[in-house]
Structure formats: C-alpha cells, structure tokens
Amino acid sequence: MSYTLNQKVSNLEPYEPISGHYAIRLDANESFLEIPEHVKADMLSRIANLHLNRYPDPLAAGVCERAGKYLGVRPELITVGNGSDELLTLLTQVMMSKGEKLVYTTPDFSMYKCYGYLAEVECIEFKKDANYRIDVDKLIDLIQSEGARMVIFSNPCNPTGVGISREEVLRLVEGAPECLVVVDEAYMEFWDQSVLDCVENYDNLMVLKTCSKSFRMAGIRCGLAISNPAVTNALRAAKSPYNVNSMTQAAAEALFDYPHELDSATQTVVDSRDELYKAVKALAGKYPGKLSLLPTSANFVYIRMPAGQAKRIFEAMKAEGVIVRCMGDCLRVTCGTEYENTEVVRLLEENL
Ligand SMILES: *Cc1c(COP(=O)(O)O)cnc(C)c1O
Fold first, then answer.
1. Does domain 7-30+261-351 have CATH number 2.30.30.60?
2. What is the pLDDT of residues 86-97, one digit of tens each?
3. What is the pLDDT of residue 348?
4. DSSP characters over 232-289
5. For 239-298, what is each residue's pLDDT tens digit?
6. What whole-number distance in Å separates Cα of residue 343 and Cα of residue 98?
7. How far is the CA of 141 from the centre of ligand 1 (A)?
8. CATH topology of domain 37-257
9. Which of 82, 92, 210, 211 maximizes ligand 1 atoms within 8 Å of its Cβ, making it the mutation to test the pocket?
10. Domain boundaries, the chain
11. Residue ranges around ligand 1 (CB below 6 Å)
C-alpha cells in the first residue's frame, strides 16, 4: 500500500505568475508607484522596534484602528488577513458548509471558484452579459431558486474593469436576504461606488479590501474583511490566531498613518489609467475590428480582440520585455508610468 493524494487536489496546478525579469511589468494590477522614502523609513523603524520573539496581536488592533479611521468604519467590524486571498479561503470554509451553494460570476477573479472547490461547496456560475454587466434581477433569481448561501464578485471587476453601481449592489443584498453577499472592492479606490458604509445595515453584506493595489503594498500581504458584528465575530473566531505577522502589522499601521499619501497615490494611478484608456481607445478607433474596450473603473484596461490575436500579441510583447496578462481573447493591461504606458501602446499598435 502506498500513499495517494486526496482526489480533489491530485490534478491541481500551483498558481504560476509569469516569472523572470521584464523591463515593463503591467500584468498583476500592482501599483507602479513605490512607497515614498519617508514613509518607508517610518515603517522600517517601527519594524526595528518589534519584539519578534513574541507572537503578533491576533486581532491586529493597530491596523483595524488606523484602517478603520481611513476607510470610515468602526475598527470592531474589521478582520485583518494575510492578504485578502487568505480571507477568501476562510470565507468559503467558515461561512459555508460542505455541499452548500456558492454563486460566482464570469468573467471575474478566478480564485473564488477555486477556493469554493477546495471547501467542497457547490460552485454555481452566473454569466455576465456581453458587456460584462451583472443583471442583478437575474442574479437574485438564481440565488433564490438555488438557495445559495453565498455570492461573491469583485466590484469593479478584475479582469473587466466594469463595475455595478452602489444602488445595484444594495438591491442585490436586499433581494437575497438569506445569502451572504461578498463584495470584493480590491479596486474601489479607483471608483466611487463603495458599499462599505452600509455593512452595519445588513445581516448579509461583507466587503473585502486589500493593501495590494491602490495602497502600494502587494509585498506585505494585508487584506481586510468588513462586515456586521455577528459575521465579523465568526470570522475572527475561525481564523488562525496569528495569521498576520508583526512586521506586516507594523508596516500597515505606518501606511495608514499617512492618509494624504494614500489619496495622492490613488489620484496619480487614476490619471495614468485615464491616459492609458485614452490611448488604447484611440487605437480602437484607428483600427476598426482589431480591438475593442469598455470604460474601466479600475487601474487597468481590458482589451478584446478577434480570436487568436491576444495570445499572439502577448507573446510579441513578451519577446520585447513587456508583460501584460493574456486571458483567452483578451489582454488585461495594468496602467503604469507615462513611459510604460507609451511603450505598451506602441507595441500594441506595432503588432496589430
Ligand atoms: C488583487 C486582488 C485581490 C487582492 O489580493 P491580496 O491577496 O490582498 O493581494 C483580491 N481580489 C481581487 C479581485 C484582486 O484582483
């Protein structure tokens, strides 16, 4: 007799981001801005003063307090995670039982379904319309008829950049009162339709935030789940006690102590996004039928192309040291510095 892998993991492949050195990386929706030197110095001095022989604060109270102040929510409603990815894993395991139904939308962030699969919940797909919009009435019908326990989507959406309005999200929350509605607002800094201020008005609303995008800290791994006290207490009780290390906590505390830096970084990225969008939109006008795109509310553009073209152009750009994300017949391009935007648009046009 020999050991065999658990069947559900026997064919899983580890997530492999594109590795290697590339002159321009616009593939992962990170911020192209570095943390300012004086903020970094503050972070490092706080880290230098930590007692690393001791366990971290299980509730990351310092992060909750500062993030809560910046985001306008009570610290008691925040659960801090080792990136929002950790919180996503927890959610399907903790808030759902084996065999219960999770509704996810397509196209959207692919990890939702993956974590649901690992938690052995039944994953039910809801397809968006041709313009990547969620028809909220149809989604409510699906949730209600299936008796789904959770629905999760990103707003605005990764990879499409399309969002649904705050009113629509709240209509969903109210129309599916027995289903936990998880709104992943990883990119909401770049838009203005957050429902974060409403978490206490409902039993069934949770908002996820991350320090990885607008807050420029993908490397420290810090995510936030915000919900009402009952849901928050369950999540806090079920997470592993020391899930967020003290260095991450110290860095995140320092980050939120510079709210003006956060605001100005967001504005710089929005400006870059607008420039990139304008330039790609101009290409779409100049080369009809070769590419199309919808307005974006995130820090990237999502470009649709005729069959086979996206992959070819992706490879051509890669050969020139420029990395974007290829997803089927679409390219997702994160906005970058002025130089990076110009280069990616130049290569795009050259290869059309
Ligand atoms: C980038 C991203 C996150 C953030 O994940 P972290 O683990 O916090 O880095 C979450 N959700 C979506 C949709 C994202 O695109």
1. no
2. 999 999 999 999
3. 97
4. HHHHHHHS-TT-S-HHHHHHHHHHHT-HHHHHHHHHHHHHHHHHHHHHHHHHHHHSTT
5. 999 999 999 999 999 999 999 999 999 999 999 999 999 999 999 999 999 999 999 999
6. 48
7. 28
8. Aspartate Aminotransferase; domain 2 (3.40.640)
9. 210
10. 7-30+261-351, 37-257
11. 29, 83-85, 109, 154, 158, 184, 186, 210, 212-213, 218, 223
